[in-house]
Amino acid sequence: MTRKLRCYAVALGVTVALTLAGCGGSDDGGATSANSKGLEKTTIKVGALPIPDPVSVYIAQAKGFFKEEGLTVEPTPITGGAVAVPMIESGQLDISQTNYVSTFAAVAGGKKIKLVADMYQAGANCFVIMVPGDSPIKTVADLKGKTIFVNNLNNVATLAVETQLKVAGLSKDDVKFAEKPFPEMGNAIKAGQADAGWITEPFITANQSANGFRKLADTITGQTEDLPIAGWMASEEWVQKYPKTLAAFQRAIAKAQQLASSDRKEIEAMLPKYTKIDAKTASVITLGTYPSELNANRLQKVADLMLEYGYLKSPLDVKSVIAAPASSG
């Protein structure tokens, strides 16, 4: 079971960085014919953003959960789930963080992708539209004709914003979406490259402090309340080729998710290590929840919203996208 983590927002400065961990194709690198756990592959590259969502992969590393499974995990930076799909297909990544919108869109487009573990569910004020403090934009309706930065196009960012545009009597045709990685959004908006941005932590806090930004709207409300945001994905081929390796990853991640959901201190201790925020900031930033199991009924909400807003042309049964859970091993 998960518990809702209280959401706070404060004006503190943040400098974000993520340690690079090799960028070559992973193919069969790390594979071994014999190891104590019988894994088909003992070293894997895992894509992750420098945000709170994928904290479980770092908790699992720090607590030795991967090591207990005979697995070495190399976190590799990505900018979003949409760009991670081709990296998964090419073998550059074995497993990656993804947002569910990007995954379901990819599957609907014929991509052979499977969800292998849950990661993050949004809470109030975890994903917001922000504008400069002196911006003339006062309401969502004022975004008509404006440019909004998102980390990737046609993903959970644009969908979440569109739900709020609808409430304001607008549609996606009334605004322009443009891509910009989360760490670069604030300065780019300040420089006039866009009028607003869809921003998550720790960048909400960073932009309040460094750039004097203010929240225009929470995008996790109404239709998107408690929206499942992100999970871990792999290619269907990879899932079939490395079942024991996948099961080892799933077991380790499930343990880490349980820790994250039951004790915020575990998250706070880890965030400074891969996002480079300080401990004080980690203790107060906005957080959602960390589910330990993929639940098709819960994820179906995302696919249904995508259908309503034109991200899918026909209904998608998310059960078909979920890989089998790991055994207790």
UniProtKB/TrEMBL annotation:
SUPFAM superfamilies: Periplasmic binding protein-like II
Domain of life: Bacteria
Species of origin: Nonomuraea wenchangensis
Major location category of this protein: periplasm
Protein name as it appears in the record: NitT/TauT family transport system substrate-binding protein
Record carries keyword Signal: yes
Keyword NAD in record: no
A GO cellular component annotation in the UniProt record: periplasmic space
Signal peptide: 1-21
Family: Belongs to the bacterial solute-binding protein SsuA/TauA family.
Keywords noted in UniProt: Signal
GO BP annotation list: alkanesulfonate transmembrane transport
Pfam family, one: NMT1
Domain Solute-binding protein family 3/N-terminal: 43-270
Location of the protein in the cell: Periplasm
